[in-house]
């Protein structure tokens, strides 16, 4: 039986509450600015109760990051070597934009970790993430070599997709302030713009 299955319903509920509260606090204040007292208060638990589930702020943060890595890698894993190259890459762009729309706190948590030098996630960046990007970059390079998309550096293409989609989560306040309320949901316009831009960039 897994540790998760062996926990009582109340224990599972409290762990979820702590992780949800920590996500809110970390995404607002970063790892260094967050405190266990803030997380406990956000979760509606006492600090001693929180420490029953997690021994430290570091343990909570690492648990969040471990789950986040899988969420972040999933859209790139879906890039299908057998599919139409332009549609596969545009699909990746759309999936990353959806992540930014639906998981803005997670995006900011990840960005804060990277800005601090990735002390808790660097092994995953150098291991699992690098291996996946290497694999998909090889696929994109093959498409370019066969003339199915424009001749483009696959790594910088992936980097640009990250930058242009995650911007809408990490700088949400700035985006909405500049666009104003009359422009509505920024993600609708973002998708149209990015699809047009990447289609032109990728067309041979």
From TrEMBL:
<dbReference type="Pfam" id="PF00440">
    <property type="entry name" value="TetR_N"/>
</dbReference>
<dbReference type="GO" id="GO:0003700">
    <property type="term" value="F:DNA-binding transcription factor activity"/>
</dbReference>
<dbReference type="InterPro" id="IPR009057">
    <property type="entry name" value="Homeodomain-like_sf"/>
</dbReference>
<dbReference type="GO" id="GO:0045892">
    <property type="term" value="P:negative regulation of DNA-templated transcription"/>
</dbReference>
<dbReference type="InterPro" id="IPR001647">
    <property type="entry name" value="HTH_TetR"/>
</dbReference>
<dbReference type="GO" id="GO:0000976">
    <property type="term" value="F:transcription cis-regulatory region binding"/>
</dbReference>
<dbReference type="Pfam" id="PF08362">
    <property type="entry name" value="TetR_C_3"/>
</dbReference>
<protein>
    <submittedName>
        <fullName>TetR family transcriptional regulator</fullName>
    </submittedName>
</protein>
<keyword id="KW-0238">DNA-binding</keyword>
<feature type="DNA-binding region" description="H-T-H motif">
    <location>
        <begin position="35"/>
        <end position="54"/>
    </location>
</feature>
<dbReference type="InterPro" id="IPR036271">
    <property type="entry name" value="Tet_transcr_reg_TetR-rel_C_sf"/>
</dbReference>
<dbReference type="InterPro" id="IPR013573">
    <property type="entry name" value="Tscrpt_reg_YcdC_C"/>
</dbReference>
<feature type="domain" description="HTH tetR-type">
    <location>
        <begin position="12"/>
        <end position="72"/>
    </location>
</feature>
<dbReference type="InterPro" id="IPR050109">
    <property type="entry name" value="HTH-type_TetR-like_transc_reg"/>
</dbReference>
